[in-house]
Amino acid sequence: MADGQADDGIVEGYWDIAALTAELGAARSRWRQAQQHHAEYGAEGFPSRDNLTKIMQSLCGALFPLRLGPSFVRLHNEDAYVAETLQTVLSRLYGQIRLELIYALKGEPAEAVDREAARIIAAFAHSLPTLRALLDTDVDAAFLGDPAARSVDEVLICYPSMLAIIHHRLAHRLHQLGAPLVARIMSEIAHGKTGIDIHPGANIGRSFFIDHGTGVVIGETAIVGDRVRLYQGVTLGARSFPADGKGALEKALPRHPIIEDDVVVYAGATVLGRIIVGSRSVIGGNVWLTDSVPADSNVRQAKAHYEVTSRAQVSAPHRVHAMLESTDGVGENI
User: Fold this and answer.
1) CB within 8 A of 76, min separation 6: which ones?
2) What are phi and psi of 100, to 5 degrees?
3) CATH class entry, domain 202-242+252-303
4) pTM for this entry
5) What secondary structure does DSSP assign to 230-288, as a single string?
6) Cβ neighbours of residue 217 under 8 Å, at least 6 residues apart?
7) What region does 77 belong to: left with phi over 0, alpha with psi -120 to 50, or beta?
8) For 41-195, which CATH class?
9) Share of the chain above pLDDT 90, in %
């Protein structure tokens, strides 16, 4: 056996674990002092992405039991499934919210944390029927807006945009109620699965449809009206990020677009800044928009100048000559 190598193949003698541990601890201490973090998320526990992934899956099943629930759910037992699922999943979600609030309410007694977590989970639970009705309008919008959709069931089961919208509706409600970290994790779960990035702070109206969806980005302070349709690659983003006197970016300022009712934004369009896109407007593909437009506008990219060139002329001119020299007008066997 070579010197400095243990039986399990791990090389020894090239690092000092005690020194590394001490140096990493010192680095964390410097960071916390610089950021004025006397406690970090995780001092008492940390909201878990893995746990919230399972929670979101259960919530989707409770909202749409016959389509997004487990295979054993049928009409005769769906109420029992929903009741049992909600009893478990809301308790687990309460635990995740409480972990966030231990940090957010640092210095407050445990009773205050429990009371605030109970307020949030109770209000969230009572919102679920309203959220289900709102999601129904989104499913209908996708079915009516996409000629490839053969049924609302296909939309709900197959469309990645529906997964992203369900996550957003639930996360947005938690964001409103005072659990922004848990809400953000929920949104990022959908982002990772679908490629659709919707900040939970964004306000989105009824009958929202994202066609295809990959690459769509909707920023924190965006406001989207009713019956809006977006295509893949659309960005509703910020144009600039103002800083305070110390150079730090100012948070939560309105910096994303307002999209009014019945607007369509086609693939690849980028809409930036706190501008207003008026009702019933159409924003064409690949448009870069940084100014407000009135209602009923049609914003299109300038037509590119192009020439149509024969591939045969470019790649194989001898074939063109052979065709032109053909005596019967049909051309040789080329």
Assistant:
1) none
2) -65, -40
3) mainly beta
4) 0.80
5) EETT-EEE-S---B-TTSPBPPS---S-EE-TT-EE-TT-EEESS-EE-TT-EE-TT-E
6) 197, 234, 235, 236, 237
7) alpha
8) mainly alpha
9) 69
